[in-house]
C-alpha cells in the first residue's frame, strides 16, 4: 500500500468512524464552545452555573423517559444549558429529525439568529455539519438539513408549520404563550405532539415559565411528571431542603430611608434554613446549590419533571438582594392597585403561576341549581328552540336551548354525535346503509320536541361552527341543504377575533360568487361572525347570567339530569389579564382563556345558541308577540300526534338569511 492509499484509507476511517457514545451533557462539556455572540461567558461550556441541568439532560436520555418538563423562572440558563446543548448533541451525535416550537414565528427567527447560529459557528464540530455562512435549501433561517436528520423551527401561530412535518424529537418553548386554539383546530401543543406519534422512541421536551393558575400549560405538564426539586444542604446543619421565597429574610429600617424601597433594605437579604434557622449569605446559598441533589416529589410514570425558581440562579443579577428589590417594588404597586409586576414576579422569579381571583361559580355549585325535568323536553315558559353545534374532527357537539320572555332559557339537550364530519359515505363496504353524522344531526335537530304542556315544537334557528378550515366544506354543504327547510333558519358561523365584536351582526356583504373566491362563496353562503367574547361576558362573566338565581328575565336554566360534564364545560374559561410577549401583563385588558385539561364545547355551543336567539331577535320581542306565539303553540297542541320531521324541499325562491327587520315577526314554531 503506497502513501496515497494510506492517506485515503485514513480519511475514510475518519469519515466513517461512528460518533462517540455520550449523553448531551457529556457532549456539551467536551465539544461546546461559547462565543461572544451568544454569551458573556466565552470558551468551553460548563454546567458550573446550573448543575441541575447536567443531571436533567443526562436523565432525559433514559429509554423509559418519553417526556421532559421544566417549570422554571427566568435566569436559570434553560436555553443555553438545555435547548442548545440538546440540539448540538442531536446534530453531531444522535442525528434524527427535530421540531422546535416557539410561541410565534418571530421568536423562532430570533432564536436562530441570536442563539442557534452563534452556537454552530463557535463549535467546530457543528460548523463542519451546518455551514451558517450561506443560505441554501439545506440551510434556511427556520430549517436546517444535515446528513441523518433536520431541525425545523416553527411558530405555534402557523397551522401549516405545526401540522406539516413529523419528527422524532419535539421541543416546546414557553407553552403558556403558545396558541391554544389554532384556527379552531385545537391546542398547538397537542397538534405538535401528534407529529411524533409515528416514532416509537419519540421524545418531547417542554420548558417554560407559568402564567395564571388553572390556565398554565406548564403547570399541568409538571403535575403529570415526577416533580423533581433540587434539594440543597444547609451549610450549618447539613439538612437538605428546597429553596423557597418564604425563607428569604431582610432587614427594615426604623424610618423611610430609601426613595425606592422605603424602610426595606434589600442589601441585607439572607436565606433562612428551614431546619436550624441559620442565615446564609448569597455565596453560601450558591455553594449549597452546587452540592444539591434532585429529589422526586411524585411517582415517575415516564415524564421527567424539574421545577426551578430564580433562587437557584447563580448569575450575578439574580443575587438575593436583587430579588428582594424586585419584590418590594412589585408589592408597593400591588398595594396601589396594580398587580402587574407582582404577577410577573410570581411567574418569572418564583416560577409559580398567579392565582387570579374570580367570582365565577364552581361547577359543583352550579350543578346544585339544576331543575328536575327530563332532557329533550321544553319546560313551561320555553316558546322558541335554538341549537348551537360545535364541529370537531371526530364528532359534533350539540346544545339545544328553549327561550322565553326576557331571554329566560332552559337547556333542552346536551349531547355529542360521534363520527367523522368529512365521512359522507352512506353505505358500508358491504353495501349496508349507514347514517352519516349529518344524517344523525338532522334527526336530532328537526324531530318534534315535546313541551311540558303537551304540544310539540321544532328548532327555529341553528348556528353551526364553520371556522376550523378543515371541516368547513362539509359544514357549508350541510347548511346549504337546509336553506329550504320550512320554519328554521340555519347559519354557518365562526368566532370573531375582536373582543368588542357584537354577539350577532349581519355579515358585512353578501358573498357574490362572481367576484369573491372563498370557500363559502361556492355554496352561496354568508358566514356570520359571533362576538364570542361578549357572549361569554353575558353568559359566564363575573355578573353573567349564571350568577342569576330563581326565575325571570335572563335566567339560564338546565336540567339536573344533564350529562355530568355540562357544568364543567360551561365554566371552562376564565377572564384573566392578557399576557404580552414581553412577559408583562396588561392588567386592564382581560381576555377569556380556557382552563387546561377542560373541554369547552358546551361553552362554544351556548355562545352559538345565544347568537341564534339574537338572529331571531328574541331579545326585542314584546309581550304581545310572546302572547301571540304562545297561543299559536297551544292551538297546535290540539293535534293528538306529533308531526313528522320536516325535510328540506325545493323552493321557488331562495330564502333571505339576513336579520329580520325590527317590525317583522319571526315565527318560531312549525305549527304556524
TrEMBL record:
Write out the ranges of the annotated region (Disordered). Answer: 639-672
Sample GO molecular function, one term: ATP hydrolysis activity
Species assigned in the record? Laribacter hongkongensis (strain HLHK9)
Q: One of this protein's Pfam families, by short name? A: GpA_nuclease
The cross-references to InterPro entries, in alphabetical order and at most eight, read: GpA_ATPase, GpA_endonuclease, P-loop_NTPase
The segment(s) forming the Terminase large subunit GpA endonuclease domain are 305-625
Q: Can you give the residue ranges of the Phage terminase large subunit GpA ATPase domain? A: 39-293
Q: Where is the composition biased (Low complexity)?
A: 640-653
| Protein name, as recorded | Phage terminase GpA
Amino acid at each position: 500500500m503506497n502513501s496515497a492509499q494510506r492517506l485515503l484509507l485514513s480519511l475514510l476511517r475518519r469519515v466513517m468512524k461512528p460518533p462517540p457514545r455520550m449523553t448531551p451533557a457529556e457532549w456539551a462539556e467536551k465539544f461546546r464552545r461559547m462565543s461572544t455572540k451568544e454569551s458573556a461567558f466565552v470558551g468551553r461550556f460548563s454546567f458550573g452555573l446550573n448543575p441541575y441541568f447536567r443531571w436533567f439532560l443526562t436523565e432525559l436520555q433514559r429509554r423509559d423517559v418519553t417526556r421532559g418538563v421544566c417549570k422554571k423562572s427566568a435566569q436559570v440558563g434553560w436555553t443555553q444549558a438545555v435547548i442548545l446543548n440538546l440540539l448540538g448533541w442531536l446534530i453531531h451525535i444522535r442525528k434524527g429529525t427535530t421540531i422546535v416550537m416557539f410561541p410565534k414565528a418571530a421568536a423562532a427567527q430570533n432564536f436562530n439568529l441570536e442563539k442557534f447560529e452563534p452556537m454552530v459557528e463557535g463549535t467546530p464540530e457543528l460548523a463542519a455539519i451546518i455551514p451558517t455562512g450561506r443560505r441554501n435549501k439545506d440551510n434556511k433561517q427556520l430549517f436546517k438539513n444535515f446528513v441523518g436528520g433536520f431541525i425545523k423551527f416553527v411558530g405555534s401561530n402557523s397551522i401549516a408549520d405545526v401540522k406539516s412535518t413529523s419528527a422524532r424529537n419535539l421541543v416546546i418553548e414557553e407553552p403558556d404563550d403558545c396558541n391554544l386554539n389554532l384556527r379552531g383546530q385545537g391546542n398547538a401543543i397537542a397538534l405538535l405532539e401528534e407529529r411524533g406519534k409515528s416514532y416509537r422512541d419519540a421524545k418531547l421536551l417542554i420548558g417554560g415559565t407559568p402564567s395564571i393558575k388553572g390556565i398554565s400549560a406548564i403547570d399541568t405538564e409538571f403535575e403529570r411528571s415526577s416533580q423533581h426539586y433540587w434539594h440543597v444542604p444547609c451549610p450549618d446543619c447539613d439538612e437538605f431542603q428546597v429553596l423557597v421565597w418564604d425563607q428569604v429574610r431582610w432587614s427594615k429600617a426604623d424610618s423611610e430611608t430609601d426613595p425606592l424601597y422605603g424602610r426595606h433594605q434589600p442589601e441585607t437579604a439572607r436565606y433562612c434554613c428551614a431546619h436550624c434557622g441559620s442565615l446564609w449569605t448569597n455565596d453560601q446559598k450558591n455553594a449549597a446549590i452546587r452540592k444539591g441533589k434532585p429529589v422526586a416529589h411524585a411517582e415517575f410514570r415516564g415524564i421527567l419533571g424539574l421545577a426551578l425558581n430564580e433562587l437557584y440562579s447563580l448569575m450575578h443579577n439574580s443575587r438575593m438582594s436583587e430579588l428582594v428589590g424586585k419584590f418590594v417594588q412589585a408589592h408597593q404597586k400591588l398595594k396601589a392597585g396594580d398587580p402587574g409586576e407582582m404577577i410577573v414576579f410570581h411567574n418569572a422569579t418564583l416560577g409559580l403561576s398567579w392565582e387570579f381571583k374570580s367570582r365565577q361559580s364552581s361547577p359543583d355549585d352550579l350543578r346544585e341549581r339544576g331543575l328536575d325535568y327530563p332532557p329533550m323536553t321544553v319546560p313551561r315558559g320555553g316558546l322558541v328552540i335554538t341549537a348551537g353545534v360545535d364541529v370537531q374532527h371526530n364528532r359534533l357537539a350539540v346544545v339545544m336551548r328553549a327561550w322565553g320572555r326576557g331571554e329566560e332559557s332552559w337547556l333542552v339537550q346536551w349531547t355529542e354525535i360521534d363520527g367523522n364530519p368529512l365521512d359522507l359515505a352512506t353505505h358500508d363496504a358491504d353495501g349496508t346503509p349507514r347514517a352519516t353524522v349529518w344524517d344523525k344531526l338532522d334527526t336530532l335537530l328537526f324531530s318534534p320536541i315535546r313541551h311540558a304542556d303537551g304540544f310539540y315544537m321544532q328548532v327555529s334557528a341553528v348556528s353551526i361552527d364553520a371556522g376550523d378550515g378543515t371541516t368547513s366544506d362539509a359544514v357549508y354543504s350541510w347548511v346549504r341543504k337546509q336553506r329550504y327547510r320550512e320554519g328554521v333558519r340555519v347559519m354557518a358561523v365562526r368566532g370573531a377575533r375582536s373582543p368588542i365584536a357584537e354577539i350577532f351582526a349581519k355579515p358585512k356583504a353578501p358573498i357574490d360568487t362572481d367576484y369573491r373566491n372563498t370557500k363559502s362563496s361556492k355554496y352561496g353562503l354568508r358566514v356570520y361572525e359571533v362576538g364570542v367574547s361578549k357572549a361569554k361576558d353575558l353568559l359566564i362573566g363575573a355578573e353573567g347570567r349564571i350568577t342569576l338565581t330563581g326565575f325571570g328575565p335572563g335566567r339560564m336554566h338546565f336540567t339536573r339530569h344533564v350529562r355530568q360534564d355540562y357544568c364543567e364545560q360551561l365554566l371552562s374559561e376564565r377572564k384573566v389579564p392578557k399576557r404580552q410577549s414581553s412577559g408583562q401583563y396588561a392588567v386592564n385588558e382581560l381576555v377569556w382563556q380556557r382552563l387546561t385539561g377542560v373541554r369547552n364545547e358546551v361553552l362554544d355551543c351556548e355562545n352559538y345558541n345565544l347568537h341564534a336567539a339574537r338572529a331571531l331577535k328574541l331579545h326585542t320581542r314584546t309581550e304581545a308577540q310572546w302572547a301571540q306565539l304562545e297561543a299559536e303553540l297551544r292551538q297546535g297542541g290540539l293535534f293528538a300526534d306529533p308531526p313528522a320531521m320536516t325535510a328540506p324541499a325545493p323552493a321557488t325562491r331562495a330564502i333571505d338569511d339576513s336579520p329580520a327587520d325590527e317590525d317583522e315577526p319571526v315565527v318560531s314554531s312549525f305549527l304556524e
